[in-house]
Amino acid sequence: MLRVVGLQIGLISFAVLFQELLLIRWLGQHVRALAYFPNLILIASFLGLGIGSIAEGRRWIGALWGPGFLAVVGAGLLLGRFVITQESASEHLWLLYYDLPPTAPVIRGLRIPLLAMFLLTAVSFVPLGRALAERLQVFREAGQPLNG
Length: 148
Known about the structure:
Elements (H helix, E strand, L loop, with lengths): L1 H29 L7 H17 L10 H15 L3 E3 L5 H4 L11 E3 L2 H32 L6
Parallel strand pairs: 1-2
Helix pairs in contact: 1-2, 1-5, 2-5, 3-5
């Protein structure tokens, strides 16, 4: 029993790392403003894992992984169609958006898009944190440490 749970911990940890790296690379490519802040995705993933670990006993959280991940991807695709600049837009920021049409909508300000992506990313990691905490609880109740 503990061997199966240990394997599940390894698979969940792999899924966490894969999703984390995927979002760091993919979101930075589509939401160009995020390319300058890759640590936001990393911090959001740790926040989501922590919240998921705290909310370990709540079964409904497990159903959020698919919709949460799709929300991050959808928001990334949507924000990828916008030009996001600082309030005082300078010429060099516009060079990042050479592939968008000149009529692309402009979002002046980084705070709202970055905050939205941060929160959606954190939400997508909550179910993985819950699943990981449940498996670690099995080892705690058995009184055995994880062996490598």
